[in-house]
Amino acid sequence: MRHGKKFNHLGRKKAHRSALLSNMACSLIEHKRINTTVAKAKALRVYVEPLITKSKDDCTHSRRTVFSYLKDKYAVSELFREVAPKIAERPGGYTRIIKTGFRQGDAAEMCMIELVDFNEIYGANTGSKKKRSRRGGAKKKSAVDGSVEVEASEVDDDTNEAVAQKEEQIKDSTSEIQGDSDTKEEEKA
Length: 189
Prior knowledge:
Number of strands: 5
Strand order of the largest sheet: 1-3-2
Order of helices and strands: HEHHHEEHEEH
Largest sheet: 3 strands, antiparallel
Structural class: alpha+beta
Number of domains: 2
CATH class of the largest domain: Alpha Beta
């Protein structure tokens, strides 16, 4: 009987299932994205996420523990060298499953499982967003007094330049004052 056994056996015995998950985990770590069935992807997620969590602590013990699951030294070195630094601040949820439809032959539900931090499409725009204004038009003339209104970014640039010039003038004037006071003290002495 299978009372209380909640994980998917995937139609395989224990040794076959562990070999399958180990090979799929190595492929996922190496390629950062693989296509498989939804059932295998869900089983792989449960298998690989604790290994990725272990890779955050780069010590001999965690490397040996991960190697006992993966049995591939190239995948282990890739995991600890490239994947671990990227996911260091992420508290969990290192993989994403995206359903892609049904397989032609047997209509099995297919999906793509990928490492979240290695997706160029989602990760490209999060780095720096360009500030947008609500209304178009760079400069507008006021109907009342004919003065020109300037966008905030131009004002910020002009303000920063003006502040820098003022600071230079203040430094120059203080150095002149200090030079004058030094000469006056020398004359008194």
